[in-house]
UniProtKB/TrEMBL annotation:
Binding sites annotated in the UniProt record for Mn(2+) 1: 275, 352, 354
Cofactor binding mode and count: Binds 2 manganese ions per subunit.
A Gene Ontology term for the protein's cellular component: cytoplasm
Cofactor(s) required for function per UniProt: Mn(2+)
Name listed for the protein in its UniProt record: Probable cytosol aminopeptidase
EC number: 3.4.11.1, 3.4.11.10
Compartment(s) of residence: Cytoplasm
Alphabetical keyword list: Aminopeptidase, Cytoplasm, Hydrolase, Manganese, Metal-binding, Protease
Family annotation (NCBIfam families): PRK00913.1-2
Pfam families with a match to the protein in the record: Peptidase_M17 (PF00883), Peptidase_M17_N (PF02789)
Gene: pepA
Residue ranges annotated for the Cytosol aminopeptidase domain, each copy included: 350-357
Broad class of enzyme this protein falls into: hydrolase
Catalytic site: 282, 356
Length: 508
């Protein structure tokens, strides 16, 4: 785990492997961002010119390395692009700082300690930069040559120590912002680990066991329903999806309660530890990354633990709907009818539309507790990826104001989200001649159809939103900003923000 601290030290005297500075894109070339004055001074005030000579423009994602000036204790200065220079009197955007810090941390993999001299105006800036650095300093190498350290096998260990310069270590707001950043980033990185863990090791029981350990470590209440308890309780959706697998399904309920809570937020995550499609098998080319289909449950898990670590004054219940979707002689068939936990029956027309089936049971279970709001998170549909691309999640809700609030919360924490409708006319496409509803409807607007299906399993009068993270949950391309290849931890920061807003009485 990368350490994060604040320091008032001046850059020149600091013992570190690198000093990170910001460079912005000005109208007439690169501009050294505030926070790096002492560094610029050591280059005789010519740092912007030096950077321009080296080809730097200040563009987002750009990294320029230069030898530190004489007298510096650190050997290297790393200039990271911040994008366009803000208008006069406007500060740098939190997300620009978060991304730049992430890029710098990634570029410094293999080194131990870096001091970040970025333009931090307030505590929120320190939090954003710290969060970006810790998220950029991520690597997943559990499965690389056992027993050797990262260097020995030719890889690079993540940056071990991040020092934020220019922050105020004794200021309560700065301290709190850095603590928050560390808690959120560490839990988010844990969610990434879960997503990246191969499905032969992370089956539903293994995920539940990890949740049990985390509950113990963080003082959470936990209840795990195994296949016997699920059968006894009538959880036909979760059992139906898990029926084909040698690894039985689980429903995990994680509860964080605060003595000062006035509100209760329920979070529900899709936890398909592997989605083969079941009998409606996915073709090759569509199943290689389907270990990521538990990203929603991982995000919910991380958010509940983060809420506990932060001591938020709100009750947060996390529901992890865990199953493996496999074809076999015992698997659910297209044409089968499942009796769900809510009592409704579902005709399964396509076993690859499994996420909505496990969520339906968990949403109904969450509803029975009458929380102030329910938010579910799921890698639910390929249609959402077609609609919004692979960096934006869709937000649907049964309440317009709630949907808007979630969109705004996402934007606040630097996650790209977009509101999507739940058009009533698409509901009849799921009419079934045999059961109360089918698990598939019209192909067009498939992401919205899935949202409409989920809505059927929300208790009367409960505010609910659905986040379809199928696009951003797993990065198949190269790393960018603070986002690595593989599991991204999508939605964790938005969920933590929602818990904070609920605690403050500003949501639900
Ligand atoms: N897990 C998939 C959705 C998905 C697709 C996640 C791409 C991440 C990346 C989901 O279970 C699924 O298979 N959905 C089907 C639904 C269809 C059969 C109605 C889909 O989107 O094709
Ligand atoms: Mn599927
Ligand atoms: Zn799925």
């Amino acid at each position: 785990m990368t350490a994060l601290t604040l320091s008032t030290a001046a850059a020149p005297g600091l013992r570190a492997d690198a000093i990170v500075i910001g460079v912005a894109k000005g109208t007439k070339g690169p501009v050294v961002a505030p926070g790096a004055e002492s560094v610029d001074k050591a280059y005789d005030g010519r740092l912007a010119g030096v950077l321009e000579t080296l080809g730097a423009s200040g563009a987002e994602g750009e990294v320029t390395k230069l030898p530190a000036p004489s007298g510096f204790k650190a050997p290297l200065v790393l200039a990271v692009g911040l994008g366009a220079e803000p208008e006069k009197d406007a500060g740098y955007d939190g997300e620009a700082l978060r991304r730049a810090a992430g890029v710098a941390a990634r570029a410094l993999a293999g080194t131990k300690k870096a001091a970040f001299a970025l333009p931090l105006v307030d505590a929120a800036d320190a939090g954003a930069a710290g969060e970006g650095a810790l998220l950029g300093a991520y690597s997943f190498d559990t499965y690389k040559e056992n027993g050797k350290d990262a260097k020995a096998r030719g890889g690079k260990a993540p940056l071990a120590e991040v020092v934020l310069l220019g922050g105020k270590p004794r200021d309560r707001a700065f301290k709190a912002a850095v603590e928050r950043a560390a808690a959120v980033a560490e839990e988010l990185n844990r969610a990434r680990d879960l997503v990246n863990t191969p499905p032969n090791d992370l089956n539903p029981a293994a995920f539940a066991a990890i949740a049990q350990d985390a509950a113990k470590a963080n003082g959470l209440k936990i209840q795990v329903l195994d296949e016997k308890a699920l059968a006894k309780g009538g959880y036909g959706g979760i059992l139906g999806v898990g029926a084909g697998s040698a690894s039985a399904p689980r429903l995990v309920k994680l509860s964080y309660t605060s003595p000062k809570a006035k509100k209760h937020l329920a979070l529900v995550g899709k936890g398909i530890t592997y989605d083969s499609g079941g009998i409606s098998l996915k073709p090759a080319g569509h199943n290689e990354t389907m270990k990521c289909d538990m990203s929603g449950a991982a995000a919910v898990f991380a958010a509940v633990v983060a809420a506990a670590r932060l001591g938020l004054e709100v009750n947060v219940t996390g529901w992890l709907a865990l199953a493996e979707n496999m074809p076999s002689g015992s698997a659910t068939r297209p044409g089968d009818v499942l009796r769900m936990f809510s009592g409704k029956t579902v005709e399964v027309l396509n076993t690859d539309a499994e996420g909505r089936l496990v969520l339906a049971d968990a949403l109904w279970a969450a509803s029975l507790e009458k929380p102030d709001a329910i938010v579910d998170v799921a890698t639910l549909t390929g249609a959402m990826v077609l609609a919004l691309g692979n960096r934006t999640f869709g937000v649907m809700a049964n309440d317009d104001a709630f949907r808007t609030a979630i969109h705004e919360a996402a934007e606040e924490v630097g996650e790209e989200a977009w509101p999507m409708p739940l058009p009533e006319h698409l509901r009849k496409g799921m009419d079934s001649p045999t059961a109360d509803i089918a698990n598939m409807g019209e192909r067009m607007g498939g992401g919205l159809v899935a949202g409409l299906f989920l809505r059927e399993f929300i208790g009367e009068g409960i505010t609910w939103a659905h986040l379809d993270i199928a696009g951003p949950a797993f990065n198949e391309g190269g790393p960018f900003g603070y986002t690595p290849k593989g599991g991204t931890g999508s939605a964790v920061r938005t969920l933590v923000r929602l818990a904070e807003l609920t605690a403050a009485g500003d949501l639900g």
